[in-house]
Design goal:
191 residues, mainly beta, 0% helix, 42% strand
Length: 191
């Protein structure tokens, strides 16, 4: 629908049910921001693949992100989830980012296997009900320096942060939470 539209600077959906088809925004939106505000959203496979986006914001609502939907989005610097529920499929953000920060606030976030594998990330933080990272979710994110997961339910499956060679800070449930659960798989932080 909008593939290769490089002059797009803002892609904004508000208070709606939206289904973004496969490759709908493929390789478009130079330095653009993408916002889903209080939507029920389905972002299909490769919907924004290889797009030079600067930021993705999901505020409110429920969003499902398909495989490789944001893969190879090399310019992403901010990924913000706020007061929402996000379910990202395997490889959803594979090999994306430019020292990107992922900030999930008061949200439920479930990331599939290899969701951010080989991505250029700086910091990952979360608060809310749930933060689940599948197998190899952040594998080989060499630039990642810190994570702060203060969600009440934190599950990190096998090799979730394996080979993150610059990782210096890991905080899990660092805020005062009365009832929290932590589940760590095999070799979660192994180099």
């Amino acid at each position: 629908a909008f593939a290769y539209c490089n002059k797009l600077t803002s892609i904004y959906f508000k208070s709606c049910t939206v289904d973004v088809g496969e490759k709908a925004f493929l390789d478009c939106g130079k330095n653009a921001t993408v916002t889903f505000y209080d939507c029920t959203s389905t972002i299909k496979n490769k919907a924004f693949r290889r797009s030079p986006l600067l930021s993705l914001e999901v505020k409110g609502g429920k969003t499902t992100i398909g495989e490789r939907a944001f893969s190879l989005c090399k310019d992403l610097s901010n990924i913000i989830f706020s007061n929402c529920e996000v379910n990202a499929s395997d490889h959803a953000f594979y090999d994306c980012g430019n020292l990107a920060n992922i900030e999930a606030t008061n949200s439920s976030v479930v990331l599939g296997d290899r969701a951010f594998k080989d991505s250029s990330l700086n910091y990952v933080s979360s608060t809310g009900t749930k933060f689940i990272a599948g197998k190899n979710a952040f594998y080989d994110c060499e630039d990642l320096i810190g994570i702060d997961l203060a969600s009440s339910n934190v599950t990190l499956y096998d090799n979730a942060f394996k080979r993150c060679k610059d990782l210096k800070e890991v905080f899990i449930c660092s805020e005062m939470i009365d009832d929290f659960t932590i589940e760590l798989g095999d070799e979660v932080f192994r180099f």
